[in-house]
UniProtKB/TrEMBL annotation:
PROSITE patterns the UniProt entry points to: START
The name this protein goes by in its record: Lipid-binding protein
Database matches in InterPro entries: START-like_dom_sf, START_dom_prot, START_lipid-bd_dom, START_lipid_transfer
All copies of domain START, residue ranges: 8-188
Organism of this sequence: Dyadobacter sandarakinus
Amino acid sequence: MAQPGGEWKFVIEKQGIRVYSRAVPDSKIKALQVKCTMPGSVAQIVALLMDLDAATKWVSHTKSCKLVRKISPSELYYYSEVSLPWPLENRDFVARIRVSLDPATRIVTVDAPAVPGWVPVRKGIVRITQSTGTWTLTPADAKNTQVQYTLQVDPGGVIPAWLVNSLSAQGPIESFTNMKEQLKADKYKNAQLPF
């Protein structure tokens, strides 16, 4: 996948959630970056990201999210279907989540690129094959985490780039707002990092 080029340009801010975009060489679809301070520890956020059953409650337009294979407590493969409004076809993808910790800085990185194979392509659903998503989680203080999320995706199929780019800020605002609510759940209160 082509690497983004140029400067990040501010798009929107809502409830402390800032969304930026930038052009990507050889792509009509812009890369996105989201920055905010999230109430919760790094471990709580990792626990939520690894909790696939919760994804439909907070990730914008997620119709389903299922475990394909768990490699270790810090690495898994999952399948997700994304709902799009008619007349567009839904999208799906398989992603590999890998969580890593820099012991010196205590910064946790969660990589979630789309990977080929693992699940057969389904009729009437467009498979996303080009997608990279990276979460960078930096402890801000005892109760808060600086979150930076970068996404570069090619939705595949027939979908106008202007439409994707015009709607792209809406999804992160919705997802991050929902994420803040999900982090209040008791099951994440005493979360520990998976390594």
